[in-house]
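Whether sequence alone determines local backbone shape is best considered at the level of individual chains. The sequence in question and its structure tokens are set out directly beneath this paragraph.

===
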Amino acid sequence: MAGTVEQKLAAQGITLPEPASPVANYVGFVRTGNLLFVSGQICFNAEGKLIAKGKCGAGVTVEQGTAAARGCAINVLAQIKAALGDLDKVVRVVRLGGFINSAPDFLDGPKVMNGASDLMVLAFGDKGRHARTTVGVASLPADAAVEVEGVFEVA
């Protein structure tokens, strides 16, 4: 039986995929004490295809980037479930870090990153409100439009 958070997500048509395996020398998450650090997740959908590929502001719209950030956040939640077995064990979303594959003059990275932030608030309510960093970058793995990482307080 899915917990409360997963039921909330399911009501919005969101199911968690199998978490992606690391592609290099790192792990998907690390827990130390009551903190869970989730490695950066790119914007793969459940079928393993990129939700948005390329640079925001040069072929990828803000709306497409926002959908990609939401997809990244779903993948972050999949890693949390793998780590804890139950999303209801999240006490608080502490911080999200967003990396936006950006054209040099693209200034709407924070709007794109709202796709991830909004999903955390949808899933966890007030416990989903978090500190955040959004950085425009020259490239990301697989030419993904967005990558998101996070830190979570857990029970």
